[in-house]
Amino acid sequence: MKVALVTDSTSDLPKPLRERLGIRAVPLYVNLGGRVYRDWEEITPEEIFRKVRQGEAFPTTSQPSPEDFLKAYQDALAEADHVLSLHISAKLSGTVQSAELAAQSFPGRITVLDSQAASLGIGMMVLRAHELLAEGQSLKEVLQELERIRRDHFVRFSVATLEFLKRGGRIGGAQALLGTLLGIKPILTLKDGRVEAAGRARGERKAKEEILKDFKAWAAGRRHIRAFFLYSAEDQAVKELKELVLSSGLPVEEALVSELGAVIASHTGPGTYGFYAYSL
Q: Model-level pTM?
């Protein structure tokens, strides 16, 4: 059985990579200044941040429609027997719901999976699924591996300000960090698909050290780890974090570095950096 992969634009996989691997991505939307833009196609994070600095109201985002997914599924099923559709956490977006509604038009031919993640947390699962399918593994085997990764992975990220998460309504358990002193960096995670506070640190350097400490605790006893680094607008902080992680002596490889797309960046703001990782 040939299985096609569909994801959404919040997986933040670079377009050249997706096209090379034959992975379809259904775009979410950014609403800014009275206009609607397709994520990764019609607006960049830099444009959003510039407009906000110039006084534009903070952006909002919206999920794809079931019709958007219907078209993607029709195209995919023209080339495959089944579609595996992996998406942003249902606690952060209604994207999974739209996908499930569209899937009803193709009984038994679409499997929709809530990644309980965002950005490269989705992306790393999509790439792992592609890898296993290319090796000839069955859909059942692929789903078992994706469920394992969903249960057991590492994620930490830091933001320059919590204001974007707050205004976008995605702040979740990180609400506890609001009002922290100037110079205190929030360290965040996703737990059960929801943003949560993982700690705080005084200054950028200490934040990276705290993230590395948490990663070492998670990585203990693991033999092979893949790390997926993400950032928005500025890449210096993620370069420094990556260097710390890769020089830590742990069995970790750099799998991908990618900038956040416009939808995720609309909720995290500029200066976000961090990474996801899973072990083999």
A: 0.95
